Amino acid sequence: MKFYKPREVFIGGNGNVERIGIGGDSPVTIQTMWKESILDVKENPAHLESIRNKIAELKMLGCDIIRFAVPDMQSAESFIEICKATSMPLVADIHFDYRLALKCLEGPVGAIRINPGNIGARERVEAVVNGCREKGVAIRIGVNTGSLPKDLEERVEKGELSRAVALSETAARECSVFEELKFDQFVVSMKASSVEETIEANEDFASRFDIPLHVGVTEAGPLITGVVKSTLAFSHLLNEGIGSTIRVSLSSSPENEVITGLEILRECGKRSGGVKLVSCPRCGRLGFDVHGFMDRWQNELLSMKKDITVAVMGCVVNGPGEGKHADIGIAGAGSKAIIFKKGKIVRTIDMKDADNEFRKELMSL
Predict the structure, then answer these.
(1) DSSP code at position 359
(2) How far apart are CA 34 and CA 268, in angstroms?
């Protein structure tokens, strides 16, 4: 099957917000979604500052875009303040009330996400499109298996077409409205909770249009289930050249969504560089608290701008050997820990000093 190379759509670029390309020759971007309330942001400067700091941390981990739910006008006003406080492109997630999208356009919003199927009459969609055109803001058209048009739903029930193809056709119909309005700065997402349906819908759409695709498995589940589903779907599609931006949907933290997305892109050859982590699963020979060390260090290591491999091993029996390819590693037994580089032990230290001494050796690389 032949798939179209997607055209390029630009997210952000307003005010101090970074401008990011999606599609074309731009690298695949990573998204996540904010999972906490933002209602008191205007009245609580400390909350706004904490959100700004967390956005900065997510960016250091590899996140490119963050989507915020905007269910009411108070949220829209808070969202505008958050947009002003960061250079990362933020996306307003709008359902049902098109006026919320128009309100968000008063600030340096990165993009607007709408499901035209639940926005209502065409003139409301046109109002959002015209507002985005005027402000130079992109749109993400989001459709899912729970919002298929009645005629397509009936055809699915009769077995005349698959739910995945119906999802692709729903997206095609929504795109036709944007094309009629001569607006081409939009991205499409078609999400299902099934890996098979996600793959089929995106393949069908990519064989018909050159529109950038936001790929994701919706309601993928808790950490392990969601990682498995997203990895299967994303790796299949990315290896076919399908997918210009991704979001790993997990019942877990935004950090875990970003880290999972980054690892998938790396394994698919879509990202390179950065810190690669290698750690053992632990066994009865345990001499070093691998899990505790990784919990303390994972985010900091992944945020570093170093092209290195770090190994965290459970014992000195196999540690330096199994991690001999690593630029730096740590293992331990009893009251002592060892730090090794390229398989060679360079330091033997007290376990209580492990974190501090590891940091010194790490910074020397």
Answers:
(1) H
(2) 26
Using alpha carbons only, give the angle 256, 268, 13 rounded to the nearest 5 degrees: 65
* Chain mean pLDDT for the chain: 92
Side-chain half-sphere CA neighbours of 265 within 13 A: 25
pLDDT (tens digit per residue) in 221-264: 789 999 999 999 999 999 999 999 999 999 999 999 999 999 99
Q: Output DSSP code: residue 28.
A: P
| Sheet containing strand 328-333, strands side by side | 276-279, 309-312, 328-333, 336-341, 344-350
Question: What CA–CA distances, in Å, run from 326 to 267, 310, 313, 330, 335?
Answer: 17, 6, 11, 10, 23
Integer Cα distance of 141 and 171 in angstroms:
8
Q: How many CA atoms does the CB half-sphere of 245 hold within 13 Å?
A: 29
332 CB-near residues (< 8 Å, 6+ apart): 287, 288, 315, 316, 338, 351, 354
Give the separation between CA 363 and CA 171, rounded to whole angstroms.
49
> According to the per-residue pLDDT averaged within each range, which of 23-27, 115-119, 318-322 is highest?
23-27
CA angle 173, 158, 196 (to 5 degrees): 65
Q: How far is CA 219 from the centre of its chain?
A: 14
Give dist(CA 136, CA 149) in Å, integer. Answer: 30
114 forms bridges with which residues in the sheet?
Answer: 94, 141
CA-wise closest residue to 189 among 226, 145, 156, 254 = 145
Kindly tell me the burial class for residue 157, based on how many C-beta atoms sit within 10 Å of its own C-beta (0-12, 13-18, 19 or more): exposed
Does the reported pTM lie above 0.85?
yes
Q: Which ranges constitute the DSSP H helices of 281-330?
A: 290-303, 319-322
Helices and strands in the chain, H and E counts = 13, 15
